[in-house]
Amino acid sequence: MKTPIPAWISAALVTFLLVSTLGYERPVRTRHPHNGVVSQHYRSVRAALRSGRSFDTTPKNSDSDASSITRIYSEQHVKLTLECTVNVNFTTSVWLKEGQVVQTILKDNINNKRVSGHRFLLDNRGNLIIDNVRLEDDGKWQCEVEDMGFVVAGKPIQLTVLGYERPVRTRHPHNGVVSQHYRSVRAALRSGRSFDTTPKNSDSDASSITRIYSEQHVKLTLECTVNVNFTTSVWLKEGQVVQTILKDNINNKRVSGHRFLLDNRGNLIIDNVRLEDDGKWQCEVEDMGFVVAGKPIQLTVLDPPEKPYLLIDNRILDPGNLFIPVKENSDLTVSCVVDGGSPKPTLSWELALGSLSLLDAPEVPYQALNFTETVREQRVGARSDVRLESVMRVHHNATLTCLVHHVALEQPLNVSLLLDVQYTPSFAISRDPGFGIPIREGMAVSLKCDVDANPRAAPIWQKDDSSPPVQQTPDGFLNFTEILREHSGWYKCIARHLLGKFSSIGYFLNVRSNADVTQEPEFDVRELSSTGRQMDVDLGGAVHLSCPPGTSGCWTHLDTETGRLEPLGASQDLKIDHILYQEAGEYSCVVPKKSPGSKNKKLDALRKALSVNIAVTGRPIVFPSNRSITAIYGQPLKLTTDFCANPSYTKAMWITNDRVYKPGESDQKAIAHSITNTSTPNCHQASLYLMKVTTKDVGEYSFIVRSVNGLGEGVFIVNLTYASGYSVNLPSSNAKRNTASLYLYLFVIIIMIIKEC
Fold first, then answer.
1. CATH homologous superfamily for the domain 27-161
2. CATH number attached to the domain at 624-756
3. Per-residue pLDDT averaged across 353-365, rounded?
4. How far, in Å, are 212, 618, 637 from residue 716 at the CA level?
5. Would you give the DSSP letter of residue 516?
6. 0.85 cut: is pTM over it?
């Protein structure tokens, strides 16, 4: 008879076999179940069970795997419960979708109040409750539970979410990927941004956006504006869901690191607003399976701009030295740039003339206050350009200021520069005793020359183009203690300047003997005339003419076509700031006749004496510089242009789409007429005659003229219409023809420059 085995031996044997079977202590190399890192640890029941997907560690074949999966089909927008099927008691559980852990909260958390925005809830038996099933919930689900240090995987569930509406191509509401799927109520409602799915126009969309401005590092509340009762809400920024927690979660203690809180009305509280919070926000709420979008909010987080700086020719100006030299009559463009700023700052310009300029020129020309502002678009910050088309001498010491306006600034930021206008000398000659009073031998006489120039230029007196008979003082005086007859002659004042050498109009000093003066003083005509009556001025330069003191004349200009003197105003001073070729010619200070008699001959002589012939020199100029002409198909067309050059032009030509015409040349298509003179000195006229305009003649025509001082160009843009009036589009071959014309034009310009050099 066999002896029975004691109970304690049986228990020990079972324990040994169980430990050996489960491999509880054997160390192996395995992949961590969630983070994917290969590490050496004791292979636990958790790893062993996951590899077999059940408590049984025996490897399963594919048939048994398929049969062990529970398949569930669900419609969208319903509440679904997935059961965690395990045969052990457990203390904790997690759910995985496609092997990834899903964040869940307890269904009865926070006194049976759900955390808004969470759809995945756990009941007290470890089952998963999916609130409002969506298409993205489709996939393989599985629970894992832990008890006494062991991990047991539940039976996997293959969830298939059914689509019940027609398939359309639409943009996924949150990830922005275009894909074909069944459009749900959620997607349909979001596209309309309200419960009404009627398409909205741009105006109504713009008016339906609430705009909020906020400073940084403050607490801000965004209200969820909907007209329905709701059970759950989420917030989106630029279409992406934002993770939020309830404000009163965890017994009024915030979860560290979370800045986005929800109150019990679905409003979003942003704690410590940052720049990255700038953008479009919108809440979405769910009720009875429907999704309603709240009124969108455009949040602008204020960020004050940095200090602005100035650019000229894309070079940054030194902030410590903003005194900018610029030549008179030149074109000046200044850029103001400011970095940063949210929203983008706005820039404006101010021009303030110097006090000395206002004193010297009480009647400031309106052109002096004109400037052009251009806003340059930038991704970050702002930029504005200001342009003075022609800098005048009245702009000397003017202040140009850029102002930066921004909602975050109490006072605008500013940066400014001071204009140092370099202009040519102008002269003012005075005499003591005054002009018109006869000078007798032995009298004390003083001549004074004042020069207005920048940089400053010292006056230098000359008599008959040589040194004066008496020593000149540093401040421009010629002092004759006792003037003599031999001191008579032509006096003028010259100045050497940065921009060249300049001279005043000549003044004739006539000294009489005492015996010649037998009656009351009269005007001396010779004193009021100028040397040679010739004055050379650079193109674009300034001219200042004054009738001599003691006369009540006004200035006129001789019209060469009619031979008449055209009045230029009632003033005795004539100023031309930016002289053109057309303004050259003879100018006279006309003294009116007061009474008939013996003085008429003297007055006629006086009129002839007070005249100046102005000659303008410079590079060639073509008028107009740019013109657009519309031709009629099949009809002839004549292109005519005027040009001026002094010194005279040396070469001129027309450049068309496919060839070059010199004046006097012709072919079957066009005739380049010979150049003719106009009534204006040093000005001419050129013309090109197109015999029959077709689509091949559409494009750009250039007239180029050259002199020793440079090149001038005029451009004609020829368009085409039919006789009925509608426009004709260019043929496709025009692009190639225009390119060829561009190469031809560049080639001609290069050849002309090489020959000039």
1. Immunoglobulins (2.60.40.10)
2. 2.60.40.10
3. 60
4. 53, 24, 12
5. G
6. no
Between CA 689 and CA 671 the distance in angstroms is 5
pLDDT of residue 45: 32
- pLDDT confidence of residue 228: 82
- CATH superfamily of the 309-422 domain: Immunoglobulins (2.60.40.10)
- Contact present, 523 and 601 (Cβ < 8 Å): no
pLDDT tens column, 498-511:
888 888 888 888 88
Closest to 57 (Cα-Cα) out of 106, 21, 90:
21
Q: Architecture of 168-301 per CATH?
A: Sandwich (2.60)
Beta-carbon contacts of residue 691 (< 8 Å; ≥ 6 apart): 636, 668, 669, 670, 671
> What tokens does 16 get?
């040994």
Nearest CA among 481, 484, 480, 470 for reference residue 440: 484
Q: Where in the chain is the domain with CATH 2.60.40.10?
A: 27-161, 168-301, 309-422, 624-756
What is residue 746's predicted lDDT score, i.e. its pLDDT?
Answer: 61
**pLDDT reading at 118 higher than 80:** no
The burial class, CB within 10 Å (0-12 / 13-18 / 19+), for 122 is buried
CA distance 315 to 324: 13
Distance CA 393, CA 391 (A): 7
Residues 666-674, mean pLDDT to the nearest whole number? 90
Residue 688 has which token pair?
Answer: 């090109």
